[in-house]
Specification:
Layout: H1 2-11, H2 16-29, H3 42-47, H4 50-53, H5 57-65, H6 74-91, H7 100-123, H8 129-141, H9 146-150, H10 155-176, H11 181-199, H12 208-220, H13 224-248, H14 260-279, H15 292-296, H16 301-304, H17 307-321, H18 323-336, H19 363-373, H20 379-401, H21 408-415, H22 420-432, H23 436-449, H24 454-466, H25 470-483, H26 489-500, H27 504-517, H28 522-534, H29 538-551, H30 556-568, H31 572-585, H32 591-603, H33 607-620, H34 627-637, H35 641-654, H36 659-671, H37 675-688, H38 693-705, H39 709-721, H40 727-733
Length: 737
């Protein structure tokens, strides 16, 4: 029977290993397609990134012109933007949050491509196809690879890994044809282009020339000097990427106090950690909390930090006997070299180690497994391999489920109970889901564990603000500022609380302080302008909006607010122009924006255009209250009382707590001299907004026509008390006082 199976496999060895590899990858990772985005960087990078979801050509170019969020990865952002465009094209929802399934599918496909290329690379050094398949399966389905594939933001790792592996494979193909310059360049030039694209996907692939050199020498020998010359253009391409990354990434406070010996211990500890996870992949999460400080204070640091250096001579000795062992070791160490801790990098604020950092480095273990199993695949070995592979696939499948929104942070806290990110981001999820008490508990845990961490207090203030406990919220924001007065968020959140408390002048002061720290944040200019509008200081509101526009001339939100401000200032022409600019920039404008533009057209005397815009608003957003009433008031001016009544009743069917539709109904009844119904409608409007003096004044007019003079006087006095004075009505009632 064993011979029959072997013969079957041999006859199909040209396609069966590849087919089985595809089936394995798809089976393990396919459940990801149904997952949502995470609020762990997916928000900043994709679904809350207006540059991505608006997917304009100008935004695409912006990612190539300068780093975004202090990282220059234009190829990755271009893919994210194109996926957003594809999502909008398929679903017909341009400008809205894209479909996460497109992003998960892209990660899976790039990872599948990397796995197939890995198999092709292994076949260069391992004659037995099934040994190469098993090595590629380790690369494809080891639990360590889940983070990069399952996390939408992990596209940086999967995409750069795919491009790097493709570049290496083409370089190896070029070296096979090094007898003639033409065939060599036919493979070498595309390899170089792919490598540059890999650098522009994630800078950590700077190590690829080292990996290519190791594999190139192992595959065809040759002098190291020639390999150096061949890869010199790749090394030169690395330099600007290193300079850009070092310039824009803020690594202040990470490792400045560590000497070279301590950094070597941190790096050694990271290597030991990764080796442990390769052989025993348990307790895996996105945040291990293994910062340099945590690692160095561990009682085992002299073991974990020195073990790789102590073991290195033995591994080199073995490698001299079998060079493929040395190359496998070099591939692994080279792959993780940029993130071992010799030089600081951003994520070290949370942990030096992370599963995604070994994505490309897993080529080393894959080569080692394939080379070891070659000529050893006896029946007993096959049985052992199948057991190990089955266990690995089960573990990987479970690890995939840990990256769903439902248990992502809960699982992370099981692995690392001091995961600051998990408490904060989990609390933010609770806030969005209106689980306010859950959010408060998580943020309080942050404050308890890290009493000097400003962001814990700031988020606690945000949670209390949601509970409308405004005084407590302000106290927590003030505490955050005491801990770190250089952060703008506590000032902004304090301003938000003060707006809710209707203390607009104080809110303005807070927003101004936030702007001095973060002048490029457009939202601050919008908020301070809104506060000034509440104060009735429209010129100040306009000035701040224009300041924001000077920072970002393409900000649709600024144009929208400028339009609303101009309308309040009685300048409908300017309002119209601003709103047209807004509509031109925003891919999916808020439906009420068309209604506001309609008001500008009305004040310009363009009634048919105003009606058309209101009808359009009602068509694209039939559940939106307001546009129907606005159209109803226009119809009242034209004497179309019946048509207006239908529109007011339509709005009341959506929301019967609105005062406007009742006021409109009252006007119609008054025009028809149905005074009793007019009074009833005005009373209903006043019940919903008893601070509107105009409603009382209009009610007074109805009572006057009904000759109920005392009621008319009482109503007009209430109007005056609320700040609304109609001299004509006061004069008409004077004889009856």
């Amino acid at each position: 029977m064993a011979r029959t199976i072997r013969a079957f496999l041999t006859r199909r060895e040209t396609t069966l290993p590849l087919l089985l590899l595809v089936i394995t990858v798809v089976a393990v990772y396919a459940p990801l397609i149904g997952d949502d985005f995470l609020n762990f960087d997916d928000d900043y990078n994709v679904y809350n990134n207006t540059r991505v979801i608006s997917h304009s050509f100008a935004n695409l170019l912006s990612f190539w012109k300068a780093p975004y969020l202090k990282l220059y990865i234009p190829v990755t952002y271009s893919i994210w933007l194109l996926l957003a465009k594809l999502s909008s094209w398929v679903h017909g929802n341009p400008g809205s949050i894209p479909d996460p399934s497109f992003y998960h599918l892209a990660n899976i496909l790039f990872h599948l491509g990397s796995s197939l290329i890995t198999y092709s690379i292994l076949r260069k050094f391992v004659k037995d196809r099934w040994s190469a398949f098993l090595g590629a399966a380790v690369f494809a389905c080891h639990p360590l690879q889940v983070e990069a594939v399952a996390w939408v933001t992990g596209l940086k790792d999967v995409l750069s890994g795919f491009l790097a592996l493709a570049a290496v494979r083409l370089y190896l193909a070029a070296r096979e044809r090094d007898t003639r310059i033409g065939p060599f360049l036919a493979f070498y030039l595309p390899a170089t282009l792919l490598y540059v694209c890999g650098l522009l996907s994630k800078p950590s692939v700077v190590v690829v020339p080292v990996l290519a050199a190791l594999l190139g020498h192992l595959a065809s020998g040759g002098r190291w000097r020639r390999i150096f010359v061949e890869l010199l253009p790749w090394l030169l391409a690395v330099l600007p990427i290193i300079l850009i990354t070092r310039h824009f990434q803020d690594t202040t406070g990470l490792m400045e106090d560590l000497n070279i010996g301590q950094r070597m211990l941190v790096a050694g500890d990271a290597v030991t950690f990764y080796l442990g996870k390769i052989f025993w992949p348990v307790n895996m999460a996105f945040d291990y909390g293994r910062t340099p400080q945590v690692a160095l204070t561990s009682p085992f640091i002299w073991l974990t930090g020195t073990l790789p250096y102590i073991s290195l001579p033995l591994l080199v000795w073995l490698g001299l006997r079998r060079p493929i062992i040395l190359v496998s070791l070099g591939l692994f160490l080279g792959g993780v070299l940029p993130v071992l801790g010799f030089v600081p990098f951003g994520f070290q604020l949370f942990s030096t180690v992370a599963d995604r950092f070994v994505y490309l480095a897993m080529l080393g273990p894959a080569l080692l497994v394939a080379s070891y199993l070659e000529k050893r695949l006896t029946k007993k070995v096959w049985l052992a391999v199948c057991i190990v592979m089955a266990a690995m696939l089960v573990k990987t499948s479970f690890q995939v489920t840990n990256w769903s929104n439902t248990n992502f942070y809960a699982h992370a806290l099981e692995v690392n109970p001091r995961s600051k990110i998990s408490y904060i981001n989990g609390g933010l999820i609770d806030l969005d889901a209106k689980r306010l008490q859950g959010a408060v508990e998580k943020f309080r845990q942050v404050v308890k564990m890290w009493p000097d961490y400003w962001e814990g207090y700031n988020h606690l203030g945000l949670a209390y603000s949601k509970q409308e406990k405004f005084d407590e919220a302000l106290a927590f924001h003030r505490r955050a500022l005491e801990l770190d007065p250089t952060m703008y968020q506590p000032y902004e959140y304090s301003g938000d609380v003060l707006v809710k408390m209707k203390r607009f002048q104080e809110a303005v002061a807070e927003y101004e302080l936030a702007i001095t720290i973060k002048p490029e944040r457009i939202q601050l200019y919008v908020k301070i302008a809104s506060a000034y509008k509440e104060l009735g200081q429209l010129s100040f509101a306009r000035d701040y909006l224009l300041k924001g526009l000077a920072i970002d001339p393409n900000s649709w939100e600024i144009f929208k607010q400028l339009g609303a401000t101009a309308l309040k200032q009685g300048n409908p022409l300017a309002a119209k122009n601003y709103y047209l600019e807004y509509l031109d920039r925003e891919k999916v404008p808020a439906p009420e924006s068309y209604a506001t533009l309609a008001m500008a057209e009305k004040y310009l005397g363009r009634i048919p255009e105003a009606i058309a815009l209101l009808v359009k608003t009602m068509t694209i957003a039939p559940g939106l209250s307001g546009p129907a009433s606005a159209l109803g008031f226009l119809y009242l001016e034209q004497g179309k009382i019946k048509e207006s009544r239908e529109l007011f009743e339509r709005d009341l069917a959506i929301d019967d707590m609105l005062p406007g539709p009742y006021s409109g109904l009252a006007i119609g009844y008054y025009m028809e001299k149905q005074y009793a119904k007019a009074v009833t409608s005005y009373r209903k409007a006043i019940m919903r907004d008893d601070r509107d003096g105009m409603l009382y004044n209009n009610l007074s007019v109805v009572y006057l026509d009904m000759k109920e003079y005392q009621k008319a006087i009482k109503a007009v006095d209430q109007a005056v008390a609320l700040g609304f004075s109609d001299p004509q009505q006061l004069q008409a009632l004077a004889p009856y006082r």
